[in-house]
Design a protein that fits this description.
It is built from six helices and ten strands. It has helices at about 20-30, 50-60, 75-80, 85-90, 100-105, 140, and strands at about 5-10, 35-40, 65-70, 110-115, 120, 155-160, 165, 170-175, 185-190, 195-205. Strands 3-2-1-9-10 form a five-stranded mixed beta sheet, covered by helices on one side. Strands 4-5-6-8-7 form a five-stranded mixed beta sheet.
């Protein structure tokens, strides 16, 4: 895919909502000309965390797909508490396809991704972060401080908002619309000039709903 013709679809926190994620991608991702960027927190809270990881892992193995996986605080927690995975598998009725390989894959997820006009991460570049940014800076997956204006538009998840929220001072969009609470999943499409073309917000589908949302 030539970069000058590339579009970008950035997807907010999924939190184990497998069928909602599939619906979003089936309806709004065109893999032939669009790079998919997942903003982290694919797991926990929701019903199908391990199934989400299997779905994404199979996509990652498909060399025809252009996907950037960004690490969120929940992926970091999964790695730190990997000994709990057998209990998760029993509870969710799903086994990881290849536990060791998938954990190594998650360890390699980036903390941020940037292009000329935008910067994507799970939690954003806080005011205390120095430029240039260290690729393993953990504040980008955990912090909740005011974001720094870095002279390009930031797109983040992590902090739940009712609808996509723009903060002018930091030139930042917040797009976690509460899939992890059973509310909505949001994605944003950027055009070939890295400008916002459209937001997509869908309700969490019935197959993903829980009376009590899952934790580690």
């Amino acid at each position: 895919m030539a970069s000058k013709n590339r579009r970008y679809l950035l997807v907010g926190d999924v939190h184990g909502c497998l069928y909602t994620l599939k619906k979003m991608l089936n309806e709004h991702w065109q893999p032939q000309d669009t790079r998919l960027i997942l903003l982290g927190d694919m797991v926990f809270k929701g019903k199908h965390s391990l199934a989400v990881l299997n779905y994404l892992y199979e996509m990652a193995l498909d060399s025809s797909l252009d996907i950037i996986f960004l690490k969120g605080n929940n992926e970091d927690m999964l790695l730190k508490h990997r000994n709990n995975i057998p209990a998760m598998q029993e509870r969710q009725g799903v086994k990881l396809l290849d536990t060791d390989a998938q954990l190594r894959w998650i360890e390699d997820w980036k903390h941020f991704y940037e292009e000329k006009h935008f910067f994507a991460s799970h939690a954003g570049v806080g005011v205390g972060v120095n430029i240039p940014i260290n690729h393993k800076n953990f504040s980008l997956i955990y912090q909740r401080n005011v974001l720094k204006n870095i002279n390009k538009t930031q797109f983040i998840g992590h902090i739940v908002v009712e609808k996509p929220l723009y903060v002018e001072e930091s030139d930042a969009w917040y797009i976690d619309t509460g899939a992890g609470n059973g509310d909505k999943l949001t994605a944003v499409l950027l055009d070939e000039n890295q400008s916002i073309k459209e937001f997509y917000t869908i309700d969490v589908v019935e197959e993903d709903m829980l009376e009590i949302w899952d934790t580690m």
